[in-house]
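COMPLEX REQUEST
Ligand: fe (ii) ion
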Amino acid sequence: MSHNKDIERYNQNKINYDRTILGKNGGIIKSYKNTPYVIAPTKESVFYHRINKIFDISNYKQPAIPPFLGIEEINDINKINTRVLRLLIKKNNSYKLRLPKELEILFPLINKIMETEFNINPKFYDYACHLTFDNGEINKNGYQRYPGFHVDGFQNHDSLLEIHENEHSYVWADNQATLFSLQPYFIEHLNFEVDDLHAELNRQTKLDNIYQGVNNGIYLFDPYMVHATPFFKDISQKRNFIRITFEEIQLKDPVNSINKMFPKKLQTYIKRIDLRTRLNSIPKDNENSLKTNLEKIGLKKVY
Ligand SMILES: [Fe+2]
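STATUS: Structure written out below.
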């Protein structure tokens, strides 16, 4: 872990967060303005057509295979001794990546993703980009990240925030790649102000529809890609996980890590209320069936 001076303590909804501070000594700055045109693999994928589109819940009825953007092995990844949560690495209205020195080892992967993104997202310049990097030893019969099938970037039609363009993320893991589910989901009956969407996704997920990517593979997910972190059945192992998210509206969560290569005002956020605490509680039997489902697929490899 980083030295204490690189951590800022933050309290939100009575939970303490450590905000990692990076980039005090600079890092890599690269502009993607003149990125050459590269044909993205699986260019015909429906995922590319959903980029820059306004969020639409009817897409949950149309499952699609996430584009696979190849393997990228990262030598020396275990030398990185910090973790970051939604670290800003490109601001809105810019072509420039700003990657702190502490994460330079990730540059080849991030560079590849930036070049791909430039080619598939006509609004590359407009969008902001955040990096999450999680590493650590996963305990036997445990999970690295929050367990359960879920989506990233769901937009609540009833919320005060205007419905905006879909966000999308590139995910990568060097051990036990992220699980994803290929089946239609029916969620129109939910009231998203009070019902727990993720509990419903877990209730509908069928074991036969779950797939797992390959180690060191890069996959493109959008808010319609239902996925889960794997279960480490009977073993304790190291896992490095990376998510790089592009979004029209920068996610302003006060627990985000801080990148000193950007001005402080870009990373000063107001407190958020965690809506999850207000949702209908998940019935106990549903919670158990979710756990059992994930445990059943423990280390099974599916492609
Ligand atoms: Fe996720």
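REMARKS: The pocket of fe (ii) ion is lined by residues 150, 152, 227 (CB under 6 Å). The chain has one domain: 4-296.
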